[in-house]
């Protein structure tokens, strides 16, 4: 058996895999890695097969590895990484040996990075997944984000893990491309002027971001007077852009509440959701409407 | 047999759609939702991975590499034309509630706003069985309804940051029960020891949309 000791943890270091779909009927959203393409790349770098990931945020993570030799893959955004004090190029694969110390620090771009091992992180699957939903205290390591001093055991893979195939990973050069959306369930409740301003205006990503969602700054006041009230709660999907009562737009991510009553104008397409999650606060983002058919074609192109 | 409401099929992103029966909560819409969710389950629709009844709509998640939105919409229109008009097999539950006091700090204000004393409110609240309308918002959180027209209040203006599991909430013609700590703008009228959520259970929640529930006051 091998052990990971967390030496330093930025906010929101969590165990994640591809999540627990199928539980919305019980009021549980799927969670899972916010940048799936990066999660997959980390798995491909780790070797023939890999277990669940540690997902970390731009503040990074320090950890010590104890045990028999083990390959690990590191991907997502671009972080700084040292192995026993020696800088390495990101993304990367490392063959870890007993006593290795890894320190990951903020880099030029990206909000979320992933480490995966050719072993499994030893926490019990909850409803088929090791993903942490810290909002409701479910899954992962005690249902919470990791902190300094936590120790996680790594155990052999059970054989259900399959090799990852990678076609595309969101890269820095694509971060300023428009984020494609489809119009959402309440788009028709917004005035035409708000809909056209929504696609002609740039919104700023704010620091108020977590696994539930990302708040945008609506400096142009596109939604200041939107004032749509009294909607019946309805299903939410990751990528939905809801407008709060005060006009603040929020792009909902994988730890979203399963249902909500705020109006939703648009939904980020699946093919662009990984890329969106990696955009740092302070940057501007523009939304571009596409048809559902175009969104589905784009998704097929990433698989 | 009365005519069933004709729903709208609305895309929700590129891997989900809603079959929406109404924009407003009402007995007709909630009945149609439960009946159609069961119909859709029985229909084994191609590419559909998840079917979830909501208050006024049914969510279907699907795999867009297996079926397009247009293709699934056509399948759904066929299923809608052949749908059943009942909820199928449902179960009945009795749930005991401690009303008022520290367990239900808003009870007296709710009764007063409805123009009755709290004993009358409790008697009215528990007087008839309610239906489980949907599970949503948080793990195991159930919406039960609908109360009679003269038993309806909007939500509070202020949101409580955290109410404990088992809180019995009241607003918008419904009673809701929490299973995890949540923030809420609903009135808190009581507390129950009943838990609808067990992460290790199969299934992890007990109550299903369409089930019937009768509330009882505990001393």
Question: Could you list some keywords that capture this structure?
Answer:
heterodimer; A: 303 residues; mainly beta; Cyclophilin; 2 domains; seven-stranded antiparallel beta sheet; 21 strands; B: 219 residues; Gyrase A, domain 2; 4 helices; 21% helix
Q: What report would you give on this structure?
A:
The complex is a heterodimer of chains A (303) and B (219). In chain A, strand 6 and strand 7 form a beta hairpin. Helix content of chain A is 13%, strand content 35%. The model of chain A has no long low-confidence stretch (mean pLDDT 94). In chain A, the strands form four sheets. A seven-stranded antiparallel sheet of chain A has the order 7-6-9-4-1-12-11, with no helix packed on it. The longest helix of chain A is centred in the N-terminal third of the chain and has 11 residues. Chain A is mainly β. Chain A has two domains: 154 residues, no CATH class; 126 residues, Cyclophilin-like (Cyclophilin). Chain A starts with a strand and ends with a helix. Chain B is an alpha+beta fold. Chain B has two domains: 74 residues, Gyrase A, domain 2, CATH 3.30.1360.40; 126 residues, Cyclophilin-like (Cyclophilin, Beta Barrel). In chain B, strands 5-12-9-10-7-6-13 form a seven-stranded mixed β-barrel. Chain B has a four-stranded antiparallel sheet with strand order 1-2-4-3, with helices on one face. In chain B, a hairpin with a 4-residue loop joins strand 1 and strand 2. Chain B is elongated, with a radius of gyration of 18 Å. Chain B starts with 7 loop residues before the first strand and ends with a strand. In chain B, 47% of the residues are buried. The chains are: A mainly beta (303), B alpha+beta (219). At the A-B interface, strand 16, strand 19 and helix 4 of A face strand 2, strand 3 and strand 4 of B.
């Amino acid at each position: 058996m091998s052990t990971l000791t967390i030496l330093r943890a930025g906010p929101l270091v969590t165990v994640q895999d591809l999540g627990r779909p199928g539980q919305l009927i019980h009021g549980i959203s799927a969670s899972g890695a916010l940048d799936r393409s990066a999660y997959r790349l980390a798995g491909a770098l780790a070797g023939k097969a890999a277990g669940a990931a540690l997902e970390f945020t731009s503040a990074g993570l320090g950890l010590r590895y104890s045990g028999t030799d083990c390959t690990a893959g590191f991907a997502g955004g671009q972080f700084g990484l040292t192995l026993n004090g020696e800088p390495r190029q990101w993304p990367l694969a490392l063959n870890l040996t007993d006593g290795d110390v890894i320190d990951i620090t903020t880099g030029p771009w990206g909000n979320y990075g992933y480490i995966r091992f050719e072993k499994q992180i030893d926490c019990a699957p909850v409803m088929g997944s090791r993903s942490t939903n810290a909002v409701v205290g479910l899954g992962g390591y005690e249902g919470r984000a990791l902190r300094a001093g936590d120790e996680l055991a790594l155990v052999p893979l059970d054989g259900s893990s399959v090799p990852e195939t990678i076609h595309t990973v969101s890269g820095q050069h694509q971060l300023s491309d428009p984020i494609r959306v489809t119009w959402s369930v309440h788009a028709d409740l917004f005035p035409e002027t708000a809909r056209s301003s929504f696609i002609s205006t740039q919104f700023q990503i704010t620091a108020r971001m977590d696994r539930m969602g990302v708040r945008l700054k609506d400096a142009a006041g596109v939604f200041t007077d939107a004032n749509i009230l009294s909607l019946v709660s309805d299903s939410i999907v990751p990528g939905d852009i809801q407008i709060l009562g005060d006009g603040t737009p929020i792009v909902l991510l994988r730890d979203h509440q399963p249902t909500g009553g705020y109006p939703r104008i648009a939904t980020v397409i699946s093919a662009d959701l990984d890329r969106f999650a990696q955009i740092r606060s302070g940057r501007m983002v523009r939304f571009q409407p596409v048809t559902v058919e175009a969104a589905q074609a784009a998704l097929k192109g990433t698989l | 047999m009365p005519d069933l409401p004709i729903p709208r099929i609305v895309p929700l992103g590129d891997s989900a759609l809603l079959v929406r029966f109404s924009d407003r909560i009402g007995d007709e819409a909630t009945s149609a939702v439960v009946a159609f969710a069961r119909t859709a389950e029985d229909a084994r629709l191609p590419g559909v991975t998840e079917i979830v009844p909501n208050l006024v709509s049914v969510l279907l998640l699907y795999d867009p590499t297996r079926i397009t939105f247009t293709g699934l919409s056509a399948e759904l229109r066929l299923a809608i034309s052949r749908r059943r008009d009942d909820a199928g097999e449902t179960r009945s539950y009795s749930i005991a509630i401690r009303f008022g006091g520290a367990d239900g700090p808003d009870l007296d204000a709710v009764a007063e706003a409805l123009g009755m004393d709290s004993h009358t409110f409790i008697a009215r609240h528990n007087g008839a069985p309610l239906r489980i309308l949907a599970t949503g918002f948080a793990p195991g959180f159930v919406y039960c309804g609908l109360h009679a027209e003269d038993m309806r209040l909007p939500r509070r203006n202020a949101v409580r940051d955290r109410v404990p599991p088992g809180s019995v909430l009241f607003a918008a013609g419904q009673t809701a029960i929490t299973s995890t700590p949540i923030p809420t703008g609903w009135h808190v009228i009581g507390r129950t020891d009943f838990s609808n959520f067990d992460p290790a259970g199969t299934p992890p929640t007990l109550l299903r949309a369409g089930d019937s529930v009768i509330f009882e006051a505990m001393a």
